[in-house]
User: Fold these one by one.
Assistant:
Number 1:
Amino acid sequence: MSAGASALPVTYIRPGARSMSFTLREVWQSRELLYFLVWRDVKVRYKQTVLGIGWSVLQPFLTMVVFTIFFGRLAKVPSDGVPYPVFSLAALVPWTYFATAASNGSSSLVGNQHLVAKVYFPRVLVPLAAVLMPAVDLAASFGMLMVLMAWYHVVPTPAIITLPLYAVLGMLTAFAVTLWTSALSVRYRDARYVLPFLIQIWLFVSPVAYPASMVPEKWRLVYALNPMATVVEGFRSSLLGTPAPAAMAMIAVPAVAAALSAGVAYFRSVEGSIVDLA
Amino acid sequence: MVDVAIRIHGLGKRYAIGAREQYDTLRDRIAAAASRPFRRLAPGGLGPSTTIWALSNITHEIRRGEVVGIIGGNGAGKSTLLKILSRITTPTEGEAEIHGRVGSLLEIGTGFHPDLTGRENIFLNGAILGMRKTEIERKFDEIVDFAEVGEFIDTPVKHYSSGMYVRLGFAVAAQMEPEILIVDEVLAVGDVHFQRKCLGKLDDVARGGRTVLFVSHNMAAVQRLCTSAMLLERGRLVRIGDVRSTVAAYLGGEARGGFAAAARTGEAQILRADLEDLDGRPLENPSCSDPIVCRIGFALPRRSPGMRVGIGVLACDGTTVFTTNNGDAGTPCPSGPGEFDACVTIPPNTLLAGDFHIALCLWNAGAILDLQEPALSFAVDPGGSPLYAERATRKGYVHVDCAWAVAPRVDTSAAVLT
């Protein structure tokens, strides 16, 4: 009898935020729920929209067309020797992912309030699922990029093996942002108005419409504090053979790591009060 | 010691009821910061008084296999306790220790998405409740069977009737197999058929040796399912014990056979009430075949014409079985002033075996002057009643003396022809 009792997992419930905070082990144990949360968002999105997955392709494609006309043709922005449409689309693919993930993630806790109030699970799964969901779009728009590259006879270099690293860096950046914004928007509903504006600004401080090489050398490292600069340039270098943003990555990786750990710490500190605040 | 499933020690939860604590915006934050120096001067300003203890100093040990009913009025802290034990919210003080996996069912169909089909929602809901995908796949047919949704399984649940919706939700939840199950008022939804099914399922769970915490306003369900009960009142644990006496304590005080007013108010008032037999002796354990006399003493300090005195007989779950007052029998009530006794006799073989409560009321055309609800509690035994001669149990609360005739059929049309 006593052996049976001690085999049962024991949970301690104590005051304070720490007792609620998630652990990696717990997140791993809930991986199936994470899968279903992502699956739900994907399913619902494609059931509610006519174009379904078409949107994830259409959005970066149309932006690319506009960029090509205004930045490529009219403003004659340099494109590191690559046809401008391919140059901008290679950046728009990760960028669109980031923008979607960040805005999805920010509203995720507020949007899943009914769930959070009725069932316990590691709350971090909610923003995590919101960041993973647009990866489906990323895959689709990546397919379109491949088509466009073939059209312009741009052949990927062996550097393509580094592409997953940049994709992961982009996801981690989005997740770091989301940890902050999702928890903040439970408490301050203003957050949802701030974020779209922030993302708009962020687009222009990232080398999406222009190459990072346009930024003066001495400012390049400060510029690299924006991890999306490395992500975007990394996508280009691994696919189009432009120079790899190695120096920028040296800044961006620690920057993301710092933002991520601060985000995790903040999220853990408020996790326990999410229900009471909503 | 080994057998403890949940150990709760000094658990308390404080909520801030100040509006600002709820939904604040940055603007409010800035405004609040600017006005902070003046806040203390403002009457009713934000201070410690704007908090409320939804739960305070709860200490209890629940053994494995116990089925505990948590009862109490609205705002007693029942749901807060369940939310803390389900880890949905943190306590402000105290601690709890839980041995085993917890499954909580605080709502039916948590996380159902209206645009997803029944099939898809089963998987989603199951995962939310902590089930593995393989586990859900294995139990899928059973869930569909239990939910009785049949061919609608591939229809989005937004097209479901509310009955189908709750059945599906409960069917998924019923497949949870945690060591400890926490259930909040799930019987409040759905029709009678559904409620019966739910109860049956919960019965199975309880018999299966699992620990269950069950919040309900349905006292009949609590009495049927639970082995013990906790009575909460305004955040405090006021009573722990066997179900019967705890439910009785909640419904009408200490399963008492007598009522006495706490103090004289000087207004029209019910002073006391007792159960007696026909000879005026106190009635301790009435059986079905006993006439039950309820003697109600009341005071009318002024001349008060048109008074009515009445009782309501409530079943153990709080359902009103019937009401009766002096006017029903055409018995006039004296206008006073003075003190009077009213006697109402419940005829023999009327109340079936079970627990009952009596509410007392004194009123006139204008208003209810005194209401004691419930004032008396008593149990009726089958005794030697002919009602129980053939079978030990009967359904319902009362017996109605109906006329019956059973005879060979007389074919009138045939009679005319010949």
Number 2:
Amino acid sequence: MTQPVAGALGGSPRLPSPYDQGPGGQGANLADILERVLDKGVVIAGDIRINLLDIELLTIKLRLIVASVDKAKEMGIDWWEHDPTLSSRASSSTADRPVAEQRDASLAEQPDRRSLVEAEGAAEAADPVRSLAEENERLRAEIAALRSADRSPAS
Amino acid sequence: MTHTDMATDTDVKTDFGTDIKTDVRADSDTETNVDVTTGLDTDVRDLEDLKDVKADVDEDVKTDIVYAYAVLRRTPEAARAVADLRGVAGERIRLLEFGDDAPDGASGGPPGDAPDRPPALAAVVGPVPAADFDEASLKAGLEDLDWLEATARAHHAVVAALTGRGIAVLPLRLVTVYRDEDRVRQTLEARRDDFLPLLDRVTGHVELGVKIYAAPDTESPDPEPAKGKGLGVGRAYLAGRRRRKRSTEDAWQAATDTAARLRELAGTLAVDRVAFRPQRGELAGQVPGPNVSNDAYLVPEDHVEDFRTRVLAAAEGLPGVHVEVTGPWAPYSFSLPAEPVS
């Protein structure tokens, strides 16, 4: 309406600029791109099996790395490798069980791990403020009362 | 006849230089034998040539596999749009057509030809080195944040270039890789009934991201408690602490409330919404404060500026939050079937 972003419907050439300078350009936020190309988009089974299981794990891992500065820093570049909860390679090198057994076990445990990781991620995402709130229910009630008295929504 | 038999034996064993002389003296039976021998020899040579050819083919198969970026409708615009694109391995991008055998859905055929035929689909693909995209390499690559970033950006750039020209696409997930083009055709053909309705849904729409942050600068300075109001040092400390907790939580709660109102407004301007997890890490770059919500909206493409302007304007009037609108993106978040096919 204000700018010809979308162009006309009749197939006249569109302005590519919003895409070139926006998310399509090199300046786009990596987290924004990764959460789309890894976590969204059409999933179809390719011939290379990495698509199914590993991408799923990677996505969970991505959520973690996007969820926490500390984890990202401590993991560095080979972030996947260093997390024993997600890398079967890392876990098999630290245990005595045969690798095959490890793999089986890790495959079998993945659903649990996944929900665990997601739960952790969710808790983390919920902000420290929330744990403070859980610490003191009475205080929270007090705040709620104050808020409703103090700040009638201006909407 | 004994002599002739021996001559025949000689024919078979010696090479053709000698055979020619023998042939002259030999009777018709022997000649036949020689012909057979010659034929066999030719066959062997042909086979060896074929082996060479086959080796070349094998070499090709080994060096190039097919990376698929997106599914779209087969149109001349789409073909033009991919012509100049380069993919994740710097490879030339092309349109892989499938769906029906019509030479060109837009131009070919008489006007009345099968008007009820569903539109033909195409895949946006590029040949990539198998050595870099086989199972082991991908596993290693995905563990390498630099590789992942480069690949994700290149993948995204291909998709964004198409969306930028107003072409409706269903972006595929990163590293969807096939052994050859036939495998792409087979797989996509099998999902055709999923893709067509999804394409219809995203046509004329783009995805916009809205990230809402709690803005720390709106925190009111801690009002100094009236001192010496009968509170001891310890009690004063505890009271101050409680107040700080309260104001932090209050700010968070205020931002959450505001976010909810903004989401409601944005929802009225969009066709659909998908919630992402809030971003927290360094991958998210410089952020103005804690990310309260992170959503994607499917917006009609001629309402993009309207959406952006109205959401940002609404945010300006609301304290405690900073709002960022990203995009337009290809409809990554709206390209999934409601119920994934197993």
